[in-house]
């Protein structure tokens, strides 16, 4: 498609006095005042002036379970916030060896109890096998520590009820790393734009979330053959509960819904007959008290894409819409964090790669100050509840050849 954007130098010359973040906020009346014609395409980038700031707080944390490689991103986020990794336990020799190579100075312990019984540790992270994360988290909270789980952080309604009961009794934090929003810069910036009113009231979110079983590189979890638990829905939670949890978190966050229901959901095993219980496709329709949602999930990313998934987010508002191309811009560039904003005056492409990620610093601050700025506790658990219900009630579909 041929597009002729407004000349970047001319645009920046007109706006040099208002600063980069104000440009990115993109208020329609501001564009009119600057003489930007309606229908123009503006290209720019979010600029960060906080990347060199030192963390404000310091805590000691440990890793208790590293079955999924998401643990590396979780550790990185907490370290950015001022966390000091002091101990680790792992139940799989190969995962523990890789973790020790990445963090050679960390103290490796022989049992989970050594971490839970250490009074100096304030926070425990885990990417243990999915159905084991909630029982571990309950023990963590009862030991007087806070907990950050990989997604899905909870796989059954029974676990969820016990988690809520334990939070109420201990007043500790049970957080879940929904990284496709919390650790994707363009997704973070989409939230800021919505808060600024850039597209009016949010009506609907659409999440397209393809994944790849065997990946060439990175810490998304498929750099080697998947473990046996990956194929067992009783252990990984099922496709809607597992990778769908990212998407439902986004639905709740962007629409602002505090109540929601699953209108319908379905799952299928289309191309893995050798793994009869595996689910390689799923989708769900959501209805919240403040917005609507649709989620599609699959394990069919082709090798030609060059990354593990072409994750897309579409946010429809009353005054415009946002599209986020999270990990690549297909056939254009391999760079992720691409945000597109369209309102009544113009279309904008915004490169979000220089934007800081606030979750780590905010989460460490929450641990210290006993607040919930980085992640709302009720919203976190509501996302878990919705995907568990979607999974339990999903229609199993068989497609004919």
Please describe what this structure looks like:
The protein is of the alpha/beta class and 401 residues long. Among the domains are: 8-45, no CATH class; 59-179, NAD(P)-binding Rossmann-like Domain (Rossmann fold, 3-Layer(aba) Sandwich), CATH 3.40.50.720. Helices cover 32% and strands 23% of the residues. It is built from 14 helices and 16 strands. The protein has helices at residues 8-15, 20-25, 28-33, 70-80, 93-102, 112-116, 133-142, 157-170, 179-182, 185-195, 233-236, 244-255, 359-369, 377-392, and strands spanning 40-45, 59-64, 83-89, 107-108, 123-126, 146-150, 174-177, 202-210, 260-268, 281-288, 292-298, 312-317, 320-325, 338-343, 346-351, 395-397. It has a ten-stranded mixed β-sheet with strand order 1-15-14-13-12-8-11-10-9-16.
Order of helices and strands: HHHEEHEHEHEHEHEHHEHHEEEEEEEHHE
Say what the CATH topology of one domain is: Rossmann fold
Main CATH class of one domain: Alpha Beta
Q: What would the principal axes of the Cα set say about the shape? A: globular
Helix content: 25-40%
Strand neighbour order, sheet with most strands:
1-15-14-13-12-8-11-10-9-16
- Figure out the total of helices: 14
Alpha-carbon Rg, integer: 22 Å
Calculate the terminal CA-CA distance, rounded to whole Å: 35 Å
Content-based structural category: alpha/beta
Architecture of one domain, CATH level 2?
3-Layer(aba) Sandwich
Mean pLDDT: 90
% residues in beta strands:
15-25%
Largest beta-sheet characterization: 10 strands, mixed
CATH homologous superfamily identity of one domain: NAD(P)-binding Rossmann-like Domain
Query: Poorly predicted ranges (pLDDT <50, ≥5 residues)?
Result: 1-35
Number of strands: 16
């Amino acid at each position: 498609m041929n597009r002729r954007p407004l000349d970047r130098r001319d645009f920046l010359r007109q706006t040099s006095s208002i600063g980069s973040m104000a440009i990115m906020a993109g208020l329609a009346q501001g564009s009119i005042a600057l003489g930007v014609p309606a229908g123009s395409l503006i290209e720019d980038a979010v600029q960060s002036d906080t990347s060199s700031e030192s963390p404000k707080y310091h805590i000691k944390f440990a890793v208790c379970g590293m079955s999924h490689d998401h643990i590396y991103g979780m550790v990185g986020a907490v370290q950015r916030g001022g966390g000091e990794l002091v101990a680790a336990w792992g139940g799989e020799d190969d995962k523990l060896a890789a973790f020790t190579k990445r963090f050679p100075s960390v103290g490796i312990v022989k049992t989970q109890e050594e971490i839970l019984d250490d009074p100096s540790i304030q926070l425990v992270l885990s990417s243990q096998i999915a159905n084991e994360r909630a029982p571990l988290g309950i023990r963590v909270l009862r030991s007087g520590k806070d907990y950050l789980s990989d997604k899905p952080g909870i796989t059954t309604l029974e676990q969820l009820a016990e988690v809520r009961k334990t939070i109420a009794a201990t007043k500790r934090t049970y957080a879940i790393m929904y990284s496709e929003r919390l650790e994707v810069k363009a997704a973070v910036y989409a939230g800021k734009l919505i808060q600024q009113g850039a597209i009016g009231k949010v009506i609907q979110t659409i999440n397209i979330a393809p994944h790849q079983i065997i990946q060439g590189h990175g810490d998304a979890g498929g750099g080697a053959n998947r473990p046996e638990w990956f194929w067992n829905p009783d252990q990984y939670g099922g496709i809607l509960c597992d990778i769908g949890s990212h998407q439902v978190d986004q639905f709740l966050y962007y629409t602002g819904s505090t109540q929601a229901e699953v209108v319908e959901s379905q799952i299928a095993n289309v191309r893995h007959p050798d793994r009869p219980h595996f689910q390689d496709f799923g989708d769900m329709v959501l209805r919240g008290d403040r917005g609507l949602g649709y989620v599609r999930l699959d394990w069919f990313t082709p090798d030609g894409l060059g990354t593990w998934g072409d994750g897309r987010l579409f946010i429809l508002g009353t005054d415009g819409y946002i599209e986020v191309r999270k990990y690549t811009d297909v056939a254009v560039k391999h760079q992720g964090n691409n945000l597109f904003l369209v309102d009544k005056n113009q279309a904008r492409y915004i490169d979000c790669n220089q934007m800081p990620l606030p979750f780590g610093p905010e989460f460490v601050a929450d641990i210290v100050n006993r607040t919930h700025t980085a992640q709302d506790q009720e919203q976190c658990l509501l996302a878990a509840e919705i995907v568990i219900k979607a999974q339990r009630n999903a229609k199993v579909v068989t497609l004919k050849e």
